[in-house]
Amino acid sequence: MSPFPRYVLRRHFLAGTAVAGVLSAVSAPGGASAASRASASASAEARVDKPFLALLTEAADARVVEVVDGLDATLAQLNNLGQARPAARSLRLLTSVHVWGDAAHHHDGALIAPMTRLVDALAAAQFDDGLYDQGAVHSPPDTAFSIVDLGLVYGLLDADGHTGTRAIRATLKKILLKAGKGLSTGGVHTPNHRWKVCAALARINSFWPDARYTRRIDAWLAEGIDGYDSGQYSERSATYAPIVTNPSLLTLARLTERPALYEHVRRNLDATLHLLEPDGEVETVHSRRQDQKTVKHQSEYWLQFRALALRERDGRFADVAATIQRRGADQTFDENPLGDFLAEVLDHPELAAPLPEATPAPSAYTWRDEDCGLVRIAKGRTRTTIFGGTDFPDVHAISSGLSTNPTFFKWRKGAAILDSLRLSPQFFSLGHFRAEDVERTADGWRLWAEVRAGFHQPLPPQHRRPDGRYPLTDDGRFWSAMDFPHRPKEWRTLRTEVRIAEADGGWNLDLEIGESEVPLALELCFRGGGKLTGVDPVPGQKDTYQLVKGYGTYTAGDDVITFGPGNGSGPRQPAVVDSGERYSWMGGDLTPAGQRVLITGRSPLRYRLNLR
Predict the structure, then answer these.
(1) Segments of the chain with pLDDT less than 50
(2) Among 2, 91, 95, 274, which one is least packed by beta carbons within 10 Å?
(3) Residue 245: CB partners within 8 Å, gap ≥ 6?
(4) DSSP H or E stretch at residue 425
(5) What is the reported pTM?
(6) Distances (CA, A) of 145 to 67, 88, 243
(7) Opening angle at CA 451, ends 446 and 455, nearest 5
């Protein structure tokens, strides 16, 4: 017998200007007096964050024209490319304003036709096994993303009960039940997919309970949630935590009455507090997914911080949620536009309650995430990131799903942002320095790594073959029919150590590289848009400069970062960044976006970089 309880769909959601049904107590008994009903309504009003709802409502209404005008393109994505997600998300947006009494498009008959086109196209694109194509044929996890949205849509339309959406609801029911078959038997690709599939099945089961759904949910959850002690999930990703894993666990906690799942989300948000930048960006250098080389924003975490702030009366979480709300449309939204959040609040109306009193996050802290090899230091308007936790020292591979970003230091001084500091020795084309770990020292922090490459000696007699046909094996840098494992080696070694210490409001970074003699380049990459002085352009390399002598400056607004000193120039220390053969063989590189400054040298080398 599955322990998964049957969930009875609550028929209340935010409806009308009285916002009745925000909490269960809002609905006064049918036999209550007019006075008691009025009192209940007034109580409900007091327990609603009206500015929050107004912000979402206005944004959702404003998105209607965009969604309707883009309908043909959205349907082309679905019909030609099998991409169901844009269609499901468009239907979700139109549904939210159709059922919400305060929306300008509440029960707007003009929305029925586009909503019908979307749901009919989604039904037609669905395979007999209930799955969709979205970058993979008959994909259960990609289907789950759309089914979570469509389940939410069905719940809102069903609770609203408007006669104009009766046919839409009937089609949605067919889609959801058909999807239940594929999701209750299909597999996944990545860790977060498990929780999205569970959330989709929980949605379907909340309307039409089925033991197949609950058994599958139980099986996935029995594997354990992939969270580290630090609070990060195994993918260490600011993309997949707020967009996939956290929302899925919150849905499961609510629909399947598993309150223990809230703790995983709370721990992740607690860790995320230390990754937030003052301008709304989120640190991602430690990620194992594609966001390790992109900029993400805290707006994606909005409703999660709000949910946990309300549940646990956590003022820190309330402060983040309030900050995002205050910024409103004047911030960057990644995958979820501002108006798209309305549907989630209508589905989970408790989110509309007023936030508890905010507790501003501390402006000074040192936080170390040992699971990710990450250190974050905040002091006033400065933020520092030290990273020594790539997967490369353990697996020696560059691949999707691995942490490979070679950035080991980042520094923000108000508007002046050093987005990346990297070190690239030209040592057997092994690529950038990637630290093996980060450790605390008496005066700061230490990063280190040792790499080596071998020259191969003749095979011992017992491994020689007269026909010369040796197996294809891996040298660690390349493959060849040389039977590398059985050959004696003559090793060349390169050791790197970086010591980082605070000094005069900035940082000193002492680099020691040896013993092999190779050219190297220290690459400082500053955020685009600022002004550089004291540096020379590198011919043939766009947005790339060299600091040859003295100190350079980078200015953004009223903030200045001074860096240096230069370390000379010349043919034996070329202004070149070697990304390594693992990239160059595939025609790739690791050139970061922004304004790059190279400080070159040659090992063995001891050099101090001053940042002020």
Answers:
(1) 1-41
(2) 2
(3) 191, 192, 195, 233, 235, 268
(4) strand 416-425
(5) 0.91
(6) 19, 9, 10
(7) 160
**What CA–CA distance (Å, rounded) separates 244 from 268?**
13
Residue whose token pair is 């003052």: 278
Q: Look at residue 145 and give its three-state secondary structure.
A: helix
CATH topology of domain 24-352: Glycosyltransferase (1.50.10)
DSSP 563-608: EE------TTS-S-----HHHHTTT-----SSEEEEEEEESSEEEE
| One-letter-per-residue 3-state SS of 20-89 | ECCCHHHCCCCCCCHHHHHHHHHHHHHCCCHHHHHHHHHHHHHHHHHHHHCHHHHHHHHHHHCCCHHHHH
Length of the chain: 612
Contact residues for 301 (Cβ-Cβ < 8 A; gap 6+):
242, 246, 269, 272, 282, 320, 324
Query: Which residues are CB-contacts of 507 (< 8 A; sequence separation ≥ 6)?
Result: 384, 409, 411, 500, 501, 610, 611
**Three-state DSSP state, 431:** coil
| Residue where the block lists tokens 């008994």 | 29
For residue 44, the model assigns a pLDDT of 56
Q: In sequence order, what DSSP letters do the residues of 470-537 get, joined into one string?
A: PPPEE-SS-EESS-GGGS-EEEEEEEEEEEEEEETTEEEEEEEEEES--EEEEEEEEPTTSEEES-EE
What residue ranges do the domains of the chain occupy? Answer: 24-352, 364-450+490-611
pLDDT tens-digit map of 142-200:
999 999 999 999 999 999 999 999 999 999 999 999 999 999 999 999 999 999 999 99
Cβ-in-10-Å burial (0-12, 13-18, 19+) of 205 comes to buried
Helix (H) or strand (E) run with residue 174 in it: helix 166-183
In tens, the pLDDT along 407-463 reads 999 999 999 999 999 999 999 999 999 999 999 999 999 999 999 999 999 999 999
Q: Which amino acid is at 481?
A: A
Structure tokens at 280: 């709304």
> Strand ranges (DSSP E) for 262-358?
281-282, 296-297
SS3 for 444? strand
